[in-house]
Amino acid sequence: MKRIKVLVTGVGAIIGYGIINSLKKIPNLELHIVGVDVFPDAVGRHWCDTFVQGVYAQSEQFSDFIISIVKQHKIDLIIPGIEQDVDALAKLVEIGKLPKELVAINSKCGLATFQNKLNTSNVQVELNIPYIQFADASLSNKKEVIDKCGLPCIYKPYSAYAGKGLAILHTESEVEKKCELKEGIFQRYIRSDKEYTVSVFGLDDGGFINPIAFERRLGPDGATHKAKVIDFALFELVVKLLCQKTKPKGPTNFQFISDDSSDDILLLEVNPRVSSSTSIRQKFGINEAEMCLEFYLFNEIPKQQFVKYGSAERFIDEVIVYDSDNI
Known about the structure:
alpha+beta, ATP_grasp_subdomain_1, CPAse_ATP-bd, metal ion binding, ATP-grasp domain-containing protein
């Protein structure tokens, strides 16, 4: 079998080098990993076979840069490691600059629904799924927001990730200022120390395979720092309803929170991409990078994988490169 060349973007961040780690755990497959990051000293460069300094996804040069990398290195599959690259690569696929089978991204419906917090909330209402009370900043005034969500409440931009732009609002004046932006949603503030991250691999037809669920604690960077594998059955009905409606494709991550006031488990948001827990999932038997190769590159339904139960803790480590006179 010829060597498979995989391009991974954002290799300096936890998702990017988590994807690399998962690729390297695939048995009986000869891979050449090309890593890209905008920073020349990105830590993931140490684990790639080839590293190329990239350009920002929002830049005018991104399209030409990606296309040149694909041609130069004869790339077989692109797996994006950061949210901005998902957006930019989806646009390149949409306008025909990249073939859709080359890029491991979600379905059009999955992206349109889950990359927008308002759309995610609205689809829960449509499906009669228990949801966190919310108000649309573009249509609501201060009184309407407080009547629906109370104080304190949460404000989120329509499109954000890893907690970016999120604010806890305690006063009417804070709510009023966010209403003036006419962009984003307000949600009831839920007091809880229990969050869950549930991942499935969508099959683009409303079905999914290889679910895995963690109870988790977040770190200050918005990524999972501690995780315990729990039973997926707790979330199965909600995930099934959402998948049947939106037909996600590839790695799709559902985040839930336990409402201490009612004992309900409510959906916080959905990330239609590989998430920061991908390397933890691989260690518990669910390798998302392997499924990406099977589904997008080989055009096969990913094989059944088997979940191991246990817990995980993340810690800080180092990559050391000695000067030549110390070797």
